[in-house]
Every structure is written in structure tokens, then in C-alpha cells.
Amino acid sequence: MAETIRLDQALPVGSEGRRSGGWWGMLALIATEGSLFGYLLFTYFYLASQSEQRWPPEGLPTLFMPGVNTLILLTSSVFVWVSERCIQLRQLYWSLASMALAIILGVCFVVIQLNEWSKKKLRYGIESVRLAVLHDHRISYAACRYRTGRADLAFALDSARLF
Hints:
- α2 packs antiparallel against α3 and α2 packs antiparallel against α5.
- Helices cover 71% and strands 0% of the residues.
- The C terminus is likely disordered.
- The chain has a domain of 97 residues.
- The termini are far apart.
- The protein is flat, with a radius of gyration of 21 Å.
- 11% of the residues are buried.
- With 163 residues, it is mainly alpha-helical.
């Protein structure tokens, strides 16, 4: 027999906690991003083990600009977190100011990335595919981090080392 519905209670709008779609979506994003990194690392070490010359052929990359980009991303994560805390404390002006700083840092990150990409001599082949995948990976991570307001230090450092 059918159950009766009480009309004095509000209907639930959506699921919460571990049952929510957003929670499962973030879990799937983390799993796929981790799989992509595992695949890239395996490919790098496999190619290094099969190569008869020095690996990587162009030498070890410098880590100064990736380090600066990582620092920018982590700092902007802090400002996003501060903005969220200010909203919880009902300090809307401070929230807007810290979010504006986070957006400015994000624009700085994109400008630096565009500058780095303009200097690269892309060859059609595995090198351009690797750079495109890593660039897309870092940009999508930055977008997800801004959406969730959380920073993942290990991911950012791995991203800086690989790029």
C-alpha cells in the first residue's frame, strides 16, 4: 500500500554528504586525474628505460617558473579559503576583496602560462601531446580548485615537477 506524504515538512532539495552528486563527481575527478598522472609517469620511465641516449634528450627542465606558478596557485587557494571563511562570518567586503585577489592571481597564472607556451617550439608528435595534456591538466585543476576552494599541495608540486 502507498505511504502518505506529510505536507507540513519541506521536501528535500538534494542529497547531502557522501550521497551527493558533487561528492561522487569530485571523487571521480580525483581518480581520473590520479590515473592520468600514473599513466604519464609510466610513459616517462618506460621511454627512459628504452632510450639508448640520455633521457630526456633536451636535458632536465628548470623548475623556477613552475615553482612560481605553483606558489601563485597555492597563494590563490589561500585567498579563496579566506573568502569562504569571510562569507561564513558575514564579512562580505573582505570576502569580495580576497576573492578579487584570488582572481588576480589566477589571471597572473594564465599570463605566465601563455608566456611559457609562446616560447616553446612545439613539434607535432609526442612532445606537443605531452605539453598539451599537462597544460590542460593544470588549467582544469586550477578551475576545480577555484570551484571547491581547496588546494592540494601534493598535486601542485607533482604538476610543477612534471611540467
